[in-house]
Amino acid sequence: MTYKRVFAIVLDSVGAGPAPDGAAFGDQGADTLGHVGHHFAGKLALPNLASLGLSNLHATPIEGVPVAHPAKGAYGRMVEISAGKDSMDGHWEMMGLPVERPLATFPKGFPASIIQQLEAFSGRKVIVNRPYSGTEVIKDYGEQQIATGDLIVYTSGDSVLQIAAHEEVIPLAELYRICEFARTLVNGPEYTVGRIIARPYVGPDKDHFTRTANRRDFSLEPTGATDLDRLKAAGLAVIGIGKINDIFSGHGITKGYHNESNMDGMDHVDEVMQTDFTGFCFTNLVDFDAMYGHRRNPAGFGQALMDFDRRLGTVLANLRPDDLLLITADHGNDPCYQGTDHTREVVPLLAYSPSMKHGDIDLGQRATYADLGATILANFGVAGNGVGTSFLAQLTN
């Protein structure tokens, strides 16, 4: 059959165990789901994800998440072939555009040529300019930034340039304008950076600073056509929820929603599910990553998973017979692992429709994230670029 509506939900950073090339990234042994489950010592309650096969796809059952006998839908894992482990790499690959060359990273900070241009454009001094935890950098330098109006510029192990500023010191419009200018400095050929991220925060002092939902990502323009472009060109609706619009710089999107939080994102999913459209709804839920993974907070990470699982129950109840639900992730961010960066992992793949004749379908370990997009294109009869292999036939037999 052909599904009229396809919903894909990306649980940002919810990895499912070591990737085959994890050692090359220093991430051997990383296992976001496994380690979060272990942290909860059997009390990680994810009944809806479990029913779809979450523990079935994991190398060993996740503590507290029983193996489904049988699973309601299809389950498997996907391996990343892109050169990096950032959200942009993962989402682009899902949509048929793997990032084949490593993007620039700056373990010693950004070169003087970039910093000097930022300062000249903004009329503000740049401070920090080195890899730093996003929460720690505002704790350590936020009060200085408030006093001076400087720009806190920092990076991580990924290809990102992040600018933090207090919303009452540098208004959002100004911060976004500075980030837009920074975007123009690192589009290649000398330096090519995946994302510029505006990181506004509020609060009176270092003990009370909080990053706000006004974060905005200014991603590198896609370097080629993606499956979103192909779907849109075919006249289908392409709805982006969360940072999808930012990651693809608006390309291939017919309607977008900004998320304030995971729960706000799920509100948007519920809203879209009540509308009648033909096409694809692509959702990213970033709190797992931004709030808990980078902060190495397994307790918060697990609670966010349980909160999502409860909302997933509503999604499952509202699915129409001609709807297909896909759940996956874009990389790992093991909150029990070393450092504060993303972790190179395989990611979960869950698929379900009320019209599936048979459940408990093992999709195995997919060779690339691009299999997701290839499956969506195959469903709508849209030609792709040959990257990725559809698993649609396994769902509809």
Structure description:
The structure is a single chain. With 397 residues, the protein is α/β, with parallel strands linked by helices. It folds into 2 domains: 5-100 and 221-396, Alkaline Phosphatase, subunit A (3-Layer(aba) Sandwich), CATH 3.40.720.10; 112-219, Alpha-Beta Plaits (2-Layer Sandwich), CATH 3.30.70. It has helices at 32-39, 47-52, 54-57, 87-94, 112-122, 134-148, 172-185, 227-233, 244-247, 262-273, 287-293, 298-318, 370-380, 392-396; strands at 5-11, 74-78, 126-131, 151-155, 160-166, 195-202, 210-211, 216-219, 237-241, 255-257, 279-285, 323-328, 347-352, 361-366. The protein has an 8-stranded mixed sheet with strand order 10-9-11-1-12-13-2-14, with helices on both faces. Strands 3, 4, 5, 6, 7 and 8 form a 6-stranded mixed sheet that branches. Helix 1 packs across helix 12 and helix 5 runs antiparallel to helix 7. The longest helix is centred in the last third of the chain and has 21 residues, at 298-318. The chain is globular, with a radius of gyration of 20 Å. The N and C termini lie close together (9 Å). The mean pLDDT is 97.
